[in-house]
Write a structure and sequence with these properties.
The structure holds two protein chains of two kinds.
Chain A lengths: L3 H7 L2 E3 L7 E3 L8 H26 L5 H26 L7 H8 L4 H23 L18
Antiparallel strand pairs in A: 1-2
Chain B lengths: L22 H29 L7 H4 L14 H25 L3 H31 L2 E5 L2 E5 L11 E7 L2 E4 L5 H32 L2 H5 L3 H26 L1
Antiparallel strand pairs in B: 1-2, 3-4
Helix pairs in contact in B: 1-5, 1-7, 3-4, 3-7, 4-5, 5-7
The chains are: A mainly alpha, B mainly alpha.
């Protein structure tokens, strides 16, 4: 509450005189670029972590199973963290009003259904393939003849 | 950063923007929200088709080439460089926006220039990668014969390895799922098109800055709006990178 007077003192109506008459309140320019560079190092670190996870299952020949699922899940979480830093800091959504932030972010919840429903559909498609597919003639692998081996 | 607004201020009482953003910025955000769903739909359809197959190519084997390195096996090295270029150009973009807030014309020009360079570099990398994938050839067992094919929207040489069969020292594979090329070229192409239009917008912003247009208007909001679009392009790449190269 003690800051209230200071805020009022700084209040400045910024109207875009040449383009329109709409009224918005200006954001105070950031004092330095510290936050930008900090976010850059965080993004770089997250990318390196993602890459090492991506290469690890190649280097250690992890071909499937729970461990591979865990590595993929970790890479998804790291990507989502990168997305949050880009949107909140680089796109300055974190500095906008709460009502505006929610207007942009709430529709994204639709992706929960979107991803779940369509991956579910993909699995159902796979089950149908297993049930009904015949191997196409071009995909059949001929027994290897000795003269083909170099 | 804080808005200079007293506590208890009524945003929705009329006479001003209740979101405290200009019309143009609000519309840019809503466009980006809709574009998120466009890219989301592409990537999710890729996911649907991919989980419906028993076999899918491992990106560590598909993306292992680097310019001027011949046949050296360098999994994910080139795409890491591309990712780094795009992150870096996002940083220079946000620095241009920062200089715009301070009304520093020369700062804006300098950082816009670096951002354009980053965008052009990224596009050049993508051109090399596409050329390498389309013209590069791998031995594939096709119609009972070993044939050398590249990766296109109708052919995929990255199938399962044919046990015990090699050709000139290379392991021979079966053909892989055809959908791989369609999704890869379609989605990275659509992203590349976004990068390309972003570069055009950045060049326009640079010309306008040099002409002193934003000094006359009194603010650099156009640079902010184009910046939003540019960061979005970087944001999409985070997920393209995840879905095609990492998972």
């Amino acid at each position: 509450m003690s800051h209230q007077d200071q805020h009022t003192e700084h209040a400045a109506v910024h109207s875009h005189a040449f383009e329109s008459t709409e009224i918005t309140y200006e954001h105070e320019p950031a004092k330095n670029t510290k936050k930008i560079w900090k976010t850059f190092w965080i993004l770089l670190g997250l990318t390196i972590a993602e890459l090492s996870l991506g290469l690890s299952h190649y280097a250690f020949h992890i071909e499937g199973g729970f461990l591979l699922l865990f590595i993929k899940g970790a890479m998804i979480i790291l990507s989502l963290m990168k997305a949050v830093y880009i949107v909140m800091t680089f796109m300055h959504l974190g500095d906008e009003l709460r009502s505006f932030r929610l207007t942009i972010l709430i529709p994204l919840l639709l992706f929960i259904w979107f991803i779940a429903a369509f991956l579910w559909d993909g699995v159902a498609y796979k089950d149908l393939r297993h049930k009904f597919d015949r191997i196409a003639p071009t995909e059949q692998v001929r027994p290897v003849q000795p003269e083909n081996l170099n | 950063m804080s808005t200079h607004v007293p506590a208890g201020f009524k945003w929705w009482s009329g006479g001003k923007s209740p979101y405290n953003v200009s019309y143009g910025k609000l519309m840019m955000w809503l466009f980006l929200l809709s574009d998120t769903f466009t890219f989301g739909a592409f990537l999710i359809s890729y996911g649907t088709v991919r989980v419906s197959h028993d076999y899918w190519p491992d990106p560590n084997y598909v993306f292992n080439a680097f310019p001027f390195m011949g046949h050296a096996n360098l999994p994910l090295a080139f795409v890491s460089l591309m990712t780094f270029i795009l992150i870096m150009s996002s940083v220079t973009m946000v620095l241009a926006v920062h200089e715009g807030h301070k009304r520093n014309k020369y700062g804006v020009q300098k950082w816009l220039g670096w951002t354009i360079l980053g965008g052009v570099l990224f596009l050049s990398c993508q051109a090399w990668e596409w050329t390498h994938m389309i013209t590069g050839s791998s031995p594939v067992l096709l119609d009972g014969q070993v044939q050398y094919i590249g990766s296109t929207i109708t052919m995929n040489p990255y199938g399962p390895v044919v046990q015990g069969l090699t050709d000139h020292g290379h392991a021979v594979t079966q053909t892989g799922p055809v959908a791989f090329g369609g999704f890869f070229f379609g989605i990275t192409g659509f992203h590349g098109f976004h990068v390309f239009s972003g570069v055009l917008l950045l060049v326009l912003a640079l010309v306008w800055t040099r002409m002193g247009r934003f000094e006359k208007v009194g603010h650099y909001e156009m640079v902010e709006k184009i910046g939003l679009y540019w960061h979005f392009v970087d944001l999409v790449w985070v997920f393209v990178f995840l879905c095609f190269y990492l998972i």
